[in-house]
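As described in the Methods, two query proteins were run sequentially through the folding procedure within a single session, without resetting any intermediate state between them. The first query and its resulting structure tokens are shown here.
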Amino acid sequence: MSSETNENINKKKYNYLQIYEAAIRNANDIIILFSSQGNILEVNRKAVDTYGYTEAELLSKNIFELRNRERIELAIMQFEKAKSGDVEFETIHFKSDGTSFPVEVKSIGIEISNDRFVLSIIRDISNRMKSEAEIRGLASLVENTEDAIIGKTLDGIITSWNIGAENIYGYKKEEVIGKHISIIIPDEKINDFYEIIKKIKNGERVRGFESKRRKKNGQLIDVSITVSPIYDFEGNLIGASNITRDITENKKVEKELRDKYEEISALYEELIAIEEELRSNYQELEKAKEEADKANKAKSEFLANISHEIRTPMNGIIGIIDLLKVTELNNNQKEYLDMLSNSSRLLLGILNTILDISKIESGKFELILKPFNMKKTLDRITKELSIACSKKNLEVFYYIDPYINFDLIGDEIRLNQVLINIINNAIKFTEMGQIMFKVRKLNTTNNKLTLEFSVKDTGIGIKEEFKNDIFKKFIQQDMTYTKKYDGTGLGLAISKDIAKLMNGDIWFESIENKGSTFYFTAEFLVNYAENINNDNLNAGDDEIVSSKNKRILLVEDNEINIKITCEMLNRLGYEYEYVYDGKQALEKLKENTFDLILMDIQMPELNGYDTTRIIREKEIKTKEHVNIIAMTAYSMNGDRERCIEVGMDDYISKPFDMNKLKNVILRFI
């Protein structure tokens, strides 16, 4: 062979190598050449693009860095097998960002110059596996759906039968495959099959066709059928697919609905007649409602006005009684004065009770939650209980749970109202024996404390026929004209409503002629800040508030109330002046300064609300503030709020005694 021929052969080999190298570098599959130790020697562009490393980074890695590290032993075994022959397998490879993807690997061992190498062709099979998973999912859905899905040839031979078909028709798959579809078609419905096949051969699809079909046990069922043509990969029509749904129960429900519809139609006609009758009465009902609303409004206004009218003279009566008590009196006068005092306060109690009932009925009865010390409240109640029992020669016992947190937040006034009510009842209906008062803790949850109060007596008890009515309004055990015990029959009814507002209850146990025990539960908030506040308050206990040089302006139009209030202020040691209405008060304030104003509400010329507004508007410019205390006979729900809203600092309702007046003044001067 000439040298020229050898040169041509070498050129051809060189060209072939270039072609092979270009083909490998640009192949659609990943191609990697490994050393016998698994180190990467060469990679193509697909490898760089797929793994996300640069070519230099890939050439610094080992085959085992691309494989699933949890199955390293399997990777070693597969690589060793590839060095001595060829191997095909599927595994997981990892990219530079840590994400994994499934691959199909074909590896072959090659020997060059006595060195062993492994050449691997790697294909990403993510899309293939996804398609296979989707096909498997679709096949599972078809197989396990509740509807019957049946495949058949154009001649009616059954080729597929899912679980839904087994459940509907009762045949197992092996019982029907290869048999004619007529096995489930009643004789009178066989023409349905031929009509549907005609449409399928014309390329049509039959939807929602209703017919009868026969189960394995011979039972006929109602079905809804959808039939679609089946084509092969070349587009040739080869059969049909039935999707069948059992609608027997639906048909039954439809019949029941039709029957019900007819029944409802008859009722509808009757309702139309009733509606006509109601429509004719609607205007009368509206008119009656308007009259009822007017009556309720008039009732509320009447109670507010009657309260004011009664409380104004009551303030005079109680005020005069308090003033008389501090004068020199003989024994008869003291006795008469005590009788007068008790009667006036009883009358005031009845008035307050009636107002409470009105608030409850109108839905305006609310609790006023404030911090208070339960121990002080209970000490006062037990003291009053002891005094009252001693007057009737009754023994008195009481027990207070030592584990109670006494610093609470709640409505102390309403609590006192309920306890005094049931204690007074126990004393009133007990002529001899004893009274037992107990307070115990039921539970503590978060910042809430529930207490149970009980009052046990040895009195007349409650008759059996009266027990169901005891908490009703205006109900008393003795309703005769010669009844022994007085009262309105409202106390327990109000106590029941107060207990509900306090998230509690009230009930009793009683045996006639042996005694009764009344129980009352209420919920309070624990005032954890009270100890801190008390420490701060105690720091100022040594400060003595002097009444000298403290000037008070009384604005009042009632002569009796003026005399009584002025006398109280005089005895309390305060300097004061008085005027008869708001207009005079404004004139007085032009050239005089006062530490406190006691302001009546209902006055001629200029009332207390408007007077307060004018004073507050002027104070915006002067940056000063005089304390104004509302002093009014109005005590309905919302009256105090209205006073505060217009700018007053506090509220005192008539009638009031000297102590009440002193306390409200001391809060401000």
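Immediately afterward, the second query was submitted; its sequence and tokens are:
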Amino acid sequence: MSEKDKQLEQYRVKDEGKALTTNQGLKMAEDEFSLKAGERGPTLMEDFHFREKMTHFDHERIPERIVHARGFAAHGEFELYESLAPYTKAGFLQDPGTKTPVFVRFSTVAGSRGSAETVRDARGFATKFYTQEGNYDLVGNNIPVFFIQDAIKFPDLIHAVKPEPHNEMPQAASAHDTFWDFVANNQESAHMVMWAMSDRAIPRSFRMMEGFGVHTFRFVNEEGRSHFVKFHWKPVLGVHSLVWDEAQKISGKDPDFHRRDLWEAIERGDYPEYELAVQLLTEEDEFRFDFDILDPTKLWPEEEVPVKRIGKMTLNRNVDNVFAETEQVAFHPGHVVPGIDFSNDPLLQGRLFSYTDTQLSRLGGSNFHELPINRPVCPFHNNQRDGIARHTINRGQVSYHNNSLAGNTPSTTPEREGGYSHYQEKIDARKVRARSESFKDHFSQAALFWNSMSEPEQQHMIDAFSFELGKVMSSSVREQVVAMFAQVSPELATPVAERIGVDAPPAGQPASTKQSPALSQANTTHSPHGRKVGVIAGPQFDDAAVLPVLDALRAAGVQVEVIAERLGEIAGTGGKALEVDHTFLTADSVLFDALYAAGGEDESGKLARQASMLLGEAYGHCKPIAASSSGKDWLGPHAPANGPGVVAGEGGEGLADAFKEAVAAHRFWTRD
């Protein structure tokens, strides 16, 4: 049990088997009826139990986050690979093997708490490290850049992307006029929009999603030397995505798809893993690139600034209570430890104010740090007192600095002994409302991203722009957006223009011809581990052919779930049985990474019809398919036996090996 878990243990309460009391500990004789003046009379004001119970219910919900409202979280630990002492004095990054408790919250950005999880959106990837020097929060996204360069424009961005105020539509979607009007008239958003229209905005799962710190931060070592740093989370399973039609259908079939995937993986012990990586630059290299390293709409191409993997995070425990932990956790990019500091990124500078201000409204005041999920594992002492929901009972008469009555304690700690001190950056400038000229190139890295995509990824982006702009009612806005992205690439803008009914832009040159292969999901890790395969079977399936395939899949880390006409067990020809997990009413091809047609008795032909529907849709989404025995008869024109990624055979180890390879490939884009 980690130190954070031990600390939280005192707050965990199991009510089962206990007497019902009020919040003051008073045992109650009745909880069915309010106190009345007669059986049919009015409720009396003196009914303190009713008032306490109802008042608590009335206030069970705290205001949801304006952004990142739809989130899910888990506990885990981070283990360091190698010392980063040459770059930072942060204690948890010094000794290889050091394990630090963490809490991670994943989220969508635009939707409300009740929205679906597979919408097209950026995703939050926020990590709280409970270090011995205090809490450190790495508050990132699954996209390495952002829409805007200065925090003063953040309210404008969110007002534009949220449901339009005159009719409060659409929910959790950017396919509407105000968002694209903002994009066309705030062209610094070009690079982020390219990511948002890519497959990165519809991840397969939280387990297969990268995370990025977005901003440029500083590492500062014991000698006071500074390095600029960017943070990355690299999922061990690789970076994989849904297709758009699939994502839309999942929103209806299972709006909890991503959280269910994370919860179930942890419950079965298949713990999600992510490697923490950093990109490092000396101060002398600050100006050697064709972009400004402080611009939050720019990334550092991995081919130019190598990524150094420094440790691994493992998520190994689900929350006990979503409200107390996931909903009340308070992240803040200003929660840092010695050795980690800030750059002059103007978006980061604004976030350092905004996050504390937000917590004051959401969590009822200035004591949000005392909630169990937010408490550091190390002691904390200061002269802050009182306020709503204060947990600490401070003893003594002194609550100010400097003082003599308490020996001037709590006292500050010199930097050389571990006290936090800001990096002393030399500044010689005038106070202005302005932006650096070096921030004004909005299209080169947007073009870099486009150039780095594989052909299927580029086609998906064309489809995404066409869908989103096809929902925009204003022809003027559609024209402005197409003209804007013609500056990124005519190969992108021209087919989009044709689809949405505006004039194609004049032929021109792309903003850049550079590429960064690391940006394409075609170059990610491919493994069958962590995938979910649906097995379609009927009574009297050929268990001698099928069961070895299922055993081999499970041994490779694949989650196998059986689909049949009814729940219970189905027996094979050899007498061995399979437990059925889903019926055709509760299963759908979009909920699985691949399908295996195992065959079985089908006197009425109903099983074949249902199986063929699932297989045909999976084939259309370019997913792997396997079939053996009579299951091969369920393949047809919508899922041909000789199609790419379709493995048809007699079962056994040969089929299993070929199917595992197909599952690892994830998609077979040549079907498109």
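The longest helix spans residues 346-362. We note this only descriptively and draw no conclusion about the first query from it.
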